[in-house]
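Need a sequence for this fold. Nothing fancy.
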């Protein structure tokens, strides 16, 4: 089905529902290793979910943007990245507020209906001291019209835990999802906080992110569209962590067609990576974890990387 997006002047008027992205994801930080990272998935065949969601300033902050699509070169994103820089003192609340207050997008999926951008955005952000998120107040309303009877939820849930002997918090995280089966976001959060998953090794953030993703797929949760069509949680999935020096500790990016469960592919690549990054080895220096078997590349453009052309018209096959 083709969806047409019409961009008008400096205020963006977006028509039809193909521009809204259903996603579940989680952002996290580790104050012990100074790593930032995230994982996520979506039901958009042959689309690169990592390129669409993930933004970070290594050794500082990680941000996911989902819901109503936003281009990587959009001034909203560029301003947020600037605020996330090491030499800035803005809080996470300041960053989220700036994203919402500067958002002048309008979305018109049906005749006579116009939604404001902030009401359809979903953001999750974390640094080494805190975490927070924003879930647009109109996402559920819109999805109930677009996908009646889907039994979906749009929510976010975060936390901090694993204090050391001095009471210092090690992990900050925030999980979020839109047009996902009820229980998906809770499963992400529970999986990340698990202390019993020995298969992946919850000694580090990488193992916790993998455990979070598997808890969704194993529990038959995920994107309601893929669950209904193929019985899978998504079509594509990723897991990525930045080391404090800006190198990739791990980058696994599954771009799928919906015929297989992408989290299973994610798991296979993760277990290969874990062979050379075992718990207690402290092998998380520059360049580690980005070798053969740990990354799946894609030549497809990001489903969020839409170049805004004034008075232009863009059509995508979704």
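Here you go.
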């Amino acid at each position: 089905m083709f969806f047409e997006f019409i961009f008008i002047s400096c205020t963006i008027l977006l028509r039809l529902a193909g521009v809204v992205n259903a996603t579940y994801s989680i952002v996290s930080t580790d104050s012990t290793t100074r790593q930032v990272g995230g994982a996520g998935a979506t039901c958009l065949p042959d689309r690169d979910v990592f390129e669409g969601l993930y933004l970070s300033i290594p050794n500082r902050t990680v941000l996911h943007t989902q819901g109503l699509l936003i281009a990587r070169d959009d001034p909203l994103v560029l301003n947020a990245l600037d605020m996330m820089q090491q030499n800035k003192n803005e809080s996470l609340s300041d960053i989220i507020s700036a994203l919402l207050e500067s958002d002048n997008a309008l979305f018109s999926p049906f005749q006579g209906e116009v939604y404001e951008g902030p009401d359809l955005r979903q953001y999750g952000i974390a640094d080494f001291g805190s975490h927070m998120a924003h879930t647009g107040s109109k996402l559920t309303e819109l999805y109930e019209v677009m996908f009646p009877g889907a039994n979906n939820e749009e929510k976010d849930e975060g936390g901090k835990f694993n204090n050391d002997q001095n009471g210092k918090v090690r992990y900050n995280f925030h999980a979020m999802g839109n047009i996902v089966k009820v229980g998906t976001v809770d499963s992400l959060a529970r999986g990340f906080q698990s202390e019993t998953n020995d298969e992946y090794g919850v000694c580090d953030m990488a193992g916790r992110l993998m455990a979070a993703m598997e808890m969704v797929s194993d529990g038959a949760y995920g994107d309601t569209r893929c669950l209904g069509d193929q019985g899978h949680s998504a079509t594509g999935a990723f897991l990525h962590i930045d080391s404090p020096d800006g190198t990739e500790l791990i980058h696994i990016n599954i771009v799928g067609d919906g015929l297989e469960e992408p989290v299973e592919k994610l798991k296979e690549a993760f277990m290969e990576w874990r062979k050379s990054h075992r718990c207690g080895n402290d092998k998380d220096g520059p360049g580690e974890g980005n070798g053969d078997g740990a990354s799946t590349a894609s030549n497809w453009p990001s489903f969020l990387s839409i170049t805004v052309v004034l008075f232009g018209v863009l059509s995508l096959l979704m």
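For context: Residues 65 and 123 are 5 Å apart (CA to CA).
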